[in-house]
Amino acid sequence: MSKFKVVVTDHEYESMEIERQEMSKIDVDFYDSYQCKTEDEVIDATKDADGVIVQYAKITPRVIDHLKKCKVISTYSIGVDKIDIKSATAKNICVANVPDYCVDEVSDHAVLLMLAIARKLTLLNGKVKSGVWDYKVSKPIYRIKGKKLGLIGFGKIPKLVAKKAQSFGMKVYAYDPYITAEEMSKYDVSRMEFDDIIQTVDFVSIHVPLLPSTKEMFNEAAFKKMKKTSYLINAARGPVVDEKALIEALQNKEIAGAALDVVYKEPISKDNLLVKMDNVIITPHVAWYSEESAEALQRTTAQQVVQVLEGYYPKNLVNRELKGKLNLKER
User: For residues 316 and 308, what is the distance between their CA atoms, to the nearest angstrom?
Assistant: First the structure.
């Protein structure tokens, strides 16, 4: 019997060879065949695990309560809203994420969505493929240069979005309660408050994590404040947007359109009205993906489990209040 047991609750990767390579560095039994869908399935799979790797499964307070000896929960993601951090911290379980594996991909995708919706790319592509060769079906389209982009959040990804948007001649603004105007000015970005920014800009791009304070921050009141010619871009988390309010805003022409890589419930239902709207672009939560980012995500997620089981704090510790409280060393 090995010294440790590590369980992957669920995953959608074609191969787990990267994780096996990392786990081979320690004495571990590695279980990667689970595809847990329910809370009870997660409990049965993980209750005696020393380390847990998760992709989409919910690590609830009840799941954590059943963990007998777990030292680390590592997630294939930047966001950690699927894990009850408070419960994990109370049991001295390290939670680790991978905050920087796809900053280039997501920033590229956010700009891509902005350009595609502004230039009505999917509408025109669909028309041409259906036999209509007429630019007038896209009217009106406006010049990108000189337009105003508002970033909601100003972490690593939106900083790159700002740089890329500026190359098109756009003026960039940002709202982030934790970042000063002085810091933003280093990136040639102007700081504004939330209500001011959504009333001012032509494109609003969301880059905040899903927290109680950000859930449905784009609601009916927010959409009513936006310009009728403005577009919403979301490559962050679906529930940051009140989807019912978004649909109503689009139907009532309170905003011009939306380009989304994430939705409230994934995968999106074919009956969702957003799917049927010509002024909405939807991609299947793919902004994070490239071959390079996928490999980095898998490897780093596994490495952080190994780090903890070897007696070190993980590289990307989410619940940093555990620093100094556990019998773990810094690398």
Answer: 11
* 319-329: pLDDT as tens digits: 999 999 999 99
| Catalytic site includes residue 299 | no
Residue 237 is among the residues annotated as catalytic for this protein: yes
Q: Is the dihedral of CA 115, 117, 118, 123 positive or negative?
A: positive
* pLDDT tens digits for range 236-276: 999 999 999 999 999 999 999 999 999 999 999 999 999 99
Superfamily of domain 4-101+291-322: NAD(P)-binding Rossmann-like Domain (3.40.50.720)
pLDDT at 128: 98
Mean of pLDDT values over 75-86: 96
User: Exactly one of 109, 237, 243, 254 is catalytic; which is it?
Assistant: 237
Q: Which fold has domain 103-282?
A: Rossmann fold (3.40.50)
Centre a 10 Å sphere on the Cβ of residue 230 and count the other Cβ atoms it contains: 23
The span from the CA of 145 to the CA of 165, in Å, is 9
Q: How confident is the model at residue 2 (pLDDT cuts 50, 70, 90)?
A: confident
Residue of 17, 266, 295, 310 marked active site? 266
Which among 62, 66, 119, 285 is annotated as catalytic? 285
Contact (CB, 8 A) for 96 and 312:
no
Scanning the structure block, which residue is given the tokens 């911290």?
A: 89
Nearest partner of 292 among 103, 80, 9, judged by Cα:
103
